[in-house]
Amino acid sequence: MTTIEQNTYNLGNDRYVLLLASGSSLKANGVGFHDLVFTASGEKRFLSDVRSLKTADKLLVRLHGAFMIAAWIGTASIGIVLARYFKQTWVESSLCAKDLWFALAGFRKFILFIHMVYITGLAAALIVMVVLAPIGTQWQSLQNKFMGM
pLDDT tens, 38-74? Predict the structure, then answer.
């Protein structure tokens, strides 16, 4: 039994996700950057288990990152640029009786780029939920995972 800050861990009988790391730099006073391997086991294992490990699939993590980049760097910045610099460009074009720049970048919540931010952000959040909460998992056991604790 190991106790750290009022949390008790049974290292002999409980399963854990194992974090594996290896690096080429060694510091005299501590650990250097792990530049060769840094990964996690794909499933919870006993610390005494000596079988080979299967690493976790990083596809959903990469998809989450791609959706967040698309949401905030792609669509949000395009909407901001449209609203800032294209007011005088499309003055003769309109969409739903609104100037085209306004329809694309700014009218209420029915705007193209803000909807794209919402959709890609929601997709990224759903990916996190799928990773942390497989179907059938109880919400009470997941509250700390979603809060980052």
Answer: 777 777 888 787 877 777 777 877 888 888 887 778 7
Exposure class string for 128-138: b at 16+ Cβ within 10 A, else e: eeeeeeeeeee
Domain ranges of the chain: 1-56, 58-147
Residue-level pLDDT at 109: 41
> Would you say 58 and 40 are in contact if contact means Cβ atoms under 8 Å apart?
no
Chain centre distance of CA 91: 39
CB atoms within 10 A of CB 146: 13
Could you give the C-alpha distances from 8 to 2, 4, 45, 149, in angstroms and in order? 6, 6, 18, 16
